Amino acid sequence: MTVTPTPAAAPLAPGQGAHHRMVDGDHVAKALVEDACGAFEVFEVVAEPGPPAPPHVSPWSGVLFVLEGTVRVHVEDARHDMSPGATITLPAGTSCTVEVPDGAPSRFLAVTSGTGAGRFFADFARSVALDRPLAETLPEVLAVTRRHGVVVSGAPQP
After folding, report:
1. The Cupin type-2 domain covers which part of the protein (predicted)?
2. Strands of 62-68's sheet in order across
3. What was the pLDDT predicted at 51?
4. pLDDT tens digit string along 130-145?
């Protein structure tokens, strides 16, 4: 997949952007910036209440900014309950997962370093069926994560 940086002054209306439906929510690609200073991506994530994705370690750093609802972020052995306006930084190589503990769906921005997260989200959404239990799709999940350098905590790795 070729990554195409967002052109300058390219506004996206609400709901626009590539939708990548994943175990932990719909990740909508809003921007990819790549220039002489580096690269980052911006995603709007809409997540429903329910169990979180398995804890995982990504090769990119991320910042989450809560827009609506409550988000619970598990980082290593700590738990952080976050409400609108709250921000958390997740350095590359940190085990984490995000969940919506109860109530209504939550919405947050995820800003990630580099250009790998978008490729991972697109591959995951294309490769893993969300209408089957995670236990049944674990081989597909692990294949996608391996391709992108994401490690699922506690899962067997090659």
Report:
1. 45-111
2. 19-22, 25-35, 38-47, 106-113, 62-68, 87-90
3. 82
4. 998 888 988 999 999 9
Residue 35's SS3 state is: strand
Count Cβ atoms below 10 Å from residue 124 Cβ, excluding itself. Answer: 23
Residue type, 100: V
CA distance 42 to 110: 6
Domain assignments of the chain as residue spans, ordered by start: 31-150
Q: Give the class (CATH, top level) of 31-150.
A: mainly beta
**What is the per-residue pLDDT across 103-117, written as a single tens digit (0 to 9) for each?**
899 999 999 999 999
| CA–CA gap between residue 97 and residue 53 (Å, rounded) | 6
102 touches 125 (CB < 8 A): no
